[in-house]
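Final report, closing paragraph on structural work. Over the funding period we assembled a curated collection of sequence-structure pairs, and we close with a single example.
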Amino acid sequence: MSHLAEDRGLIMYWDFDEGKGSSTVENISQVQDSIHYVFHSSELHQHDPQWRKGVVGSGLCFDGYSTYIAHSLDKTGIEHEAVSFSALTIGVWIAPRSYDWGNEGKLTAIVNRHDIEQKQGYLLGMSRHGSWSFQVGLDTGQWKEVWAPAGYELPKNTWSCIHAVFDSDRGELKLYLNGSEIACTDVPMGARLVQADDTDLLIGRNNHSSVLADVFHLQMFSGILDELKIYNQALNTEQIASAYQHVLDSTSEGTHPQLEYDEIKLDRTPLLQDRHRPQYHASPPAHWMNEPHAPIYFDGQYHLFYQHNPLGPFFYHIHWGHWVSKDLVHWRDLPVALAPEHDDLSPDGIWSGSATYDANGLPVLFFTAANDNLSPNQSVALAQSTYLQDHNPDLVQWTKYSDSLMVQPHGIGAFGDFRDPFVWKEGDRWLALVGSGIEDVGGVALAFSSEDMLNWTYKGIFYQADLQKYPYLGPIWELPVFLPLGIDQQGQHKHILLVSPVGEGADVEVFYWIGQWDEQQMSFIPDQEEPQLIDVGDFHFTGPSGMIDPKTNRKIIFTIAQGNRTSELEYQAGWAHNAGLPLSIYLREDGRLGIEPIQELQSLRGKKHVSFQEKSLQEANDLLKHVRGDRLEIQVELQSSTAQNIGIKVRCTPDRAEETLLYYDRKAAQLLVDRTKSTLNPQEVSTGIQGGTLDIHDDSLKLHIYLDGSMIEVYANGLKSLTTRVYPSRADALEMELWSDGELEVISMEVWDMQSIW
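Its predicted structure, as stored:
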């Protein structure tokens, strides 16, 4: 504990030097404050809050949605007899990891005990894009605020020393950043700060936070705090400068302390014990993701981005997360690539897009820029890599072009629904599709072209479907993807168009058409009007993106595997969603779409549990009795002349109280999953029977199955997939058995353990 002259009047002090455990000491009163943290009571995994390196000793890391401290002043005996006081200083070292969007105009609280409506208490906090403020309620009935001016925002992933001072004698509210005064606001001389008696002092959570989905409290701090001090005196400029310099001299040889990204980044380690969380599917280190997108290959590495909320496992304030890989299987987490900023381009979100190459062969990102100050609030923007400056093959830094490149054409498309550009280079020009919709017509993909990648011309409707005939295609299309498939038996060049419908009546799945591209007219002519599904597992396979792999010329698509859990369960888990496995798509000789997981996934195979051929159902199940696992790869080929339904049960408990049935209905020509017994947990919603059409004619049934925690992916005969989720309540739901309602011949079967990619 410090004994500097400026520490006279110190009434509360948290040094956060514990470095471990689930509580922290307020040093003046010696009160042990519990640290609220979601994983204290998780049924699946229990952990202490995350402690990180501080500026002095350790610091406490706040996760952005569940970590906070409630300090009851009634316990300390420190609360003054008076209900108001004339001076207050708060000092703290702060390293934000993410900024809140600023819902309802409320501040992300660093420390507060306030009630704005009653004009009581105090609040030191942050707002959008790193702006920050100190606010107090006075006995004059006023609520007074002082704000950091432009240029003095609190940077992410960087230590800042901030002080906030209320001085009744001088009639001032002041802010200090790194030992220097940056802002001052007048308050009435002699006015006193009125205490908010009906609330505890909270660190890291706003006393009056907004609530999302009845579960998630917003305006919660994300990052590291250290050396939090509260005084009942107004420190002067010299004292604050001295306190700042003292830390520099004692910890970093007189220089401002540095913070490495690895010391503050989201840590996936606590979630590795969650048996429901996939371990060989790409996922963010923690919190929320939706669709992965913008795949691109550069300088020996694949890059894949994803929609991400770094504040918690809920949809809010979307950024672009970033992974990199050498083999499309083993991914590394990189810092957020694109984030909302205080600009006129995308202050309110960085939504989905794609990647391509500029004229020099360097990667560029096209994204949906969200600006709620505009109407419509969506446009297409661009970010360029800083590779020419830093030569970093990880492409960590990106610079946004200042202006929107594509805006919704007047009178074209559903107003305000204009997003998810898919951009590619064709010869010497760049082409783009953007998702939208037309009233009474339905979803559309709009076409654009450019000669220089910056100036774009609207070319018309690329493709639209008949909403009256196919109402499940919905009023809006998102995430259009357009890839060449190859040449068919008649010598015609074929392409595939994929879309994801949304809106009222939409079936939120991935639909596609195979057809021909009229490059001159920038339009698409499908071979058949009716759309097809890649995946028949309902909405667990959505959000497509795609690329042509320059190493192999494969056409590869990526998707989001949604979790379909309640907000309460996602709060408790600390994560929501993951990517599906990368898939290779191709044109089969029969003209149908072929689909298979990429071959590189075989590198994850561990122990082979079984490998056999030509067995009866009973013989095969005898060999499977000792096979257990929830992270497996299974290949099995089945044939029956008498059974209508044939398949396999997975994630079974020994007593079969929980099990999931994957099967093929030969008469209906459908691939199905029965989840009516998948879990005994009434909170989980993974129940019922789902599936869709799969016509294998008279072929045997060939299933390629991947189990990974809650993920189940089935690939049948190279024609369709079925992606689903299960959350067994019992940890012993690890067995499997083959199943049919008649005789069954097991032509072949192999089962491998699969290794984690993390």
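The mean pLDDT is 95. The first helix runs from residue 237 to 251. We thank the funder for supporting this effort.
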